Amino acid sequence: MTVTQEAPDSAHQAHFDAAIAADRRIEPRDWMPEGYRKTLVRQVSQHAHSEIIGMQPEGDWIASAPSLRRKAILLAKVQDEAGHGLYLYAAAETLGVDRADLTQRLVDGRQKYSSIFNYPSLTFADVGVIGWLVDGAAICNQVPLCRSSFGPYARAMVRICKEESFHQRQGYELLMRMMEGTEGQRAMVQDAVDRWWWPSLMMFGPPDDESPNTARSMAWGIKRNTNDELRQKFVDMTVPQADKLGVTLPDPELVWNDERGHYDFGDPDWNEFKQVVSGAGPCNAERIARRRAAHEKGAWVREAAAAHARKHNTEEAAV
Ligand code: FAQ
C-alpha cells in the first residue's frame, strides 16, 4: 500500500499503527498522525536548542583553559555540540518546520531547552563535572532514543551518542587528574559536584506521575523509557563512579537497596525545576540574550550564504 501525506483516513491510521506495533521506523514521507508530528517537533527542536544553548556554560572556559591540551579537548567538545544541534534541526526540518522559525521561537521564549544549561559554570572543575554528570545523564537519556520510532531522529542520535561518550570520558578524566592534585583542587571538584548533582537529576524531566507527555510518547515509540526509569539508571551508573573518584554525592538518602537491586535516592527540588523551566533560573536571561545576539550578528552570514546559493543555482541552470 502506498501511503501519502493526504487527509488522514482509517487506512493511513491503520498502516501507521501497524508500523508502530511492528517496531518499524516512520520516515518523513510516511503519513503520520498530527499529534505524533507535533510531539516530535516539540521534542526534537527542544533537544536541538539544548545542544546549542549548552555550548555556553563550557564555552566560557575555552579562553582560560589551564593548558593547550585542555583547550583543544574543550574546543572539540563544544564544536561537537554545535554539530549535534545541526543534525537535530535537520531532523526537525524533515517534519515540515523551518529552522529559522524554531530559533525565533527559542529566542522569543516560546520554546524550551534543557533546564541544566541555566546554571552557571563557576570554576574549571565545572567543565569536568558537566562532562561527567551532564553528558552522563545525556547518554542515559539518549541511547534509548537511537531506537526512537522516527527514522531521522533515531539516526541522528546514533552519531550524537558516540560523541557524547567521548564527552563524558573527557570530563571524568579531567576530574581524576584534579583529584590527584592539591587539596584546593579536590575541594573545587567536590563543590562542583555539589552544585551540579541535583540539576543533573532534573534533566530527566518531572516524575512520571507528573509527566503529561510520557505515556503518549512511549505508546508511539518516540520515547523508550519513562523519566523515572532513566533517572534511576543514571543514579545506579554514577554512584560507583563517584566512589572511584573520591567525591561525595550530596544526598543523605542515597543508599543501596538490596531488595530493589537499585540505589534509593532523595527527591530533587521540583519547585526549583519548575522555576528554571519557566524562565526564572540563575542564567536563563543571560543564555537567551546571548543566543539572540549571536543570531542577530549572524544575519549577514545567512544572507550571504543564501545569495551565494541563488547565484550558484542560476549559473547551474544556465549551463
Ligand atoms: N528541561 O512530559 P514531560 C545535552 C518539559 S542535551 C526543560 O516529561 P517529555 C547534551 C517538557 O519539555 C539535553 N524542560 O516531557 C549536552 C515538557 O514541556 P512541554 C537535552 C523540560 O518531552 C551535554 C514538560 O516539561 N536532552 O545535555 C525538562 O516527554 C553537555 C513536561 O515534561 C533532550 O532534549 C528539562 N530537563 O520528556 C550539551 C533529550 N524536562 O514541551 C552540552 C530529548 C521536561 O510539554 C553540554 N528529550 N521538560 O511544554 C527527552 O528525552 C524528553 O523531551 C525529556 C522530557 C525527557 C527531556
Automatic annotation (TrEMBL):
It is an enzyme of class 1 (oxidoreductase). One of its GO terms (cellular component) is cytosol. It holds the Pfam family PaaA_PaaC. Gene3D superfamilies: 1.20.1260.10. Keywords: Oxidoreductase. One of its GO terms (molecular function) is phenylacetyl-CoA 1,2-epoxidase activity. Signal peptide: none annotated. This is Ring-1,2-phenylacetyl-CoA epoxidase subunit PaaA.
